[in-house]
Structure formats: structure tokens, C-alpha cells
Amino acid sequence: MSLQRKHEDQVLSAVREFAGSLNSGRKVVADISELVEATSPLPLSSLDNWERLIRLEFHQALSNTKPAKWKFWRQPTHFLTWIDLCSDDGFKRERTLRALSGAAPNRFFFAMAVRRLNDWVPQVRAAAYERLLSIANDSDPEDVVDVLCAVFPHWNSWGRMDENGKQILLKITSIETVARSLKSRLVSATAGPLASVLAQAGQATALDAFLPEMASNAIQPSVRAKAYRCLLDRKMVWLTGRKWEWSDIRYCKGHFKPMFCDRSLSGKSPIEETLRAASVDRSPMVRRVAGEVLIRESGTDWFCRSRIGYLTCVRFPSISSREGAIRSKETLANGSWRWMNIGSPPPNLAPRGRPRSCVSRFPVAFGTGSPLKLKSKAA
Asked: Which of 158-162, 172-176, 297-301 is predicted with the least confidence, judged by mean pLDDT?
């Protein structure tokens, strides 16, 4: 039996048991612990399928479970519980959100509450705006971080969630305990789109103070590269969506163009020390970020190219190519050197199969066609 099938059987069995306890005629809230235990190991990648499965099974179990016949004068009382967030009745989902209090039982039910930010009923979304922040404050920070890491990479595809819903999630990220747990997850996790999570969560200022730690200690190279880029650029950049752009409307050809926003970081870090740390990182992805900054900052006053350039050229070829670009940039800016080809095209335009040694390059005096006179060793 596959793990997916095993989880489905456990969840369906727990839903049936919970539905039967609701129709038992007791005036107390039914025990949801078995359902919480069954939904705790569920992945957060296919919540729509799990929500649909629970909704159908719960409705069928309530229909099949009849109350005691000798109490025909009493209708069964259905208490609003966390499972009613999966109901197909918008009125019940709204009442459930407004009635719930305290912490979420596990990350699955907190994810069900977060999904109401993209609900198709406006009143349910309004109830989620009001109640979600207080639920997150009382819930386990690790459960909240699990849901945020699952939601942030894809929340731009939630077409019904407006800017208010995004601000609610960013306020949840700004909770001190949640911010620290999210920082620990970004540093210690070995898999997942955490660089995208860092970019989206970076819309709030809660993670600005942890960027140096993430840049130096994060396990994933993409997270370290993103943190170093934010520190070196002194701004946080994130994807806000994609806009269709026509390349040739006559033939109905086009593509989606990514749209970005940015904000300035709240703190300041020494850029030279950060650049040195990025240039000696063990990942080429991070060193390329350092190489781009080497080229961009080569003309600034603080930039000491001789020291940083020597440090990067000695060990890492991925930076030595950027160092060559710095030299070319300075050569063109100064106008003191140019290259001359003799009887052959430039190296980048040489035909295939032709040895590059035939491309002769000699330094010539700028503004003249005569090569520089070089002193011989004998002289």
C-alpha cells in the first residue's frame, strides 16, 4: 500500500468517526484528536485535493449517520469545528472563522484557515482578514512557518486574494516568534524554494536583521546568494506577478513578462566586508553575485580593486572572468589602449576550426595606427 493511499484511509476513517460523534446526541463538542493526528503528516502541496476529499466524506458520513430514533423530537446539534472550514456552505465557513478561538490544532487546519484568504465568497475573505492574525498569534510558530513556506512561492496565483490578504500574511511574518522560526527554517532547510520564500517574506522588515546570518550560515546556496544580493544592493526585490506582453500581435505571439518590486533595507552593512565574504563563498552561485558587484562597483571611491581582485582571481575562475571584465571596463573608460587585429577577424568572430593563436593582438598607441615600440631584453 502506497503512503498516499495509507494517508487517505486514515483521514477518511477519522472523518467518519468524527461525524458519528457529532450525531451521538451528546451536548458536548466531539473529540477531534483522532482527526488531528491523521491530518498532521499530510503534505501541504495538494491542499485542494485534501479539502475536497474531506468535504465529500464528511457530508456523506453525516448523511449516513442517523440520530437515535427515540429522540425524534430533537434535531442533532452541529457544533462549529475546524473541519467546517472545508464545508461547501459559505455561511458555515464564515461563521466557523468568526467562532474559532485559540490555536490551530496542527498545520493542516491552519492552512485551511489561510486558504480562506482566497475564498470565492467575499464575506468569508473578510472574516479571514479579521480572525487569521489572532489565530496565528496563538498557534505553534513551527506550524505557521510550514504554512508560510508553502504559500509564499505561489500566492501570486491566488486571483481572489487582494492586497489586504497579502498584508495579513506579512503581519503574521512580522510576529517575533514566527520571524525567528522562519529565519531558522531558511538557514537549516536543505530543500524547497526557500529563496522565493525569502524574497516574498522580505516585503516586511522582520527578516532584515537576520540577513547577515542567513548569508553566511544558510545551507542552500540560493538562499545565501539571495541574502548576499540584498545586502550588496541594499534593497529587497520580489516578484509581484507576470504580465502578458505581445512580441508580434499579427501572429498572436507573446510571452509573460515578470514584474518586480523592491524596497530599501532598514539596516546597513559594510559592503566591502560583505563583498569579501561573498567572493570566498563555497558556492559558485554566490561568487557570481560577488563578481557582478565587482564590476558594478569598480569605479567607486571605496572600491580597492587590487586587493579584492587579487583575492578573487587566485582561487575562483568564476570571479576571474569578472575581473577581466573590470579591466576591459577601465581600459575603455581611460581610452589608453586598444587592440589591433592583423589579417583576421576578432577572436569572438573567428570561424570555427581556426586556431585562436592566429589572432594576433598588439597594443597600439591610442589615436594612431602604429604599434608601440617595445624595448628588447638585450636593450
From this structure: 297-301
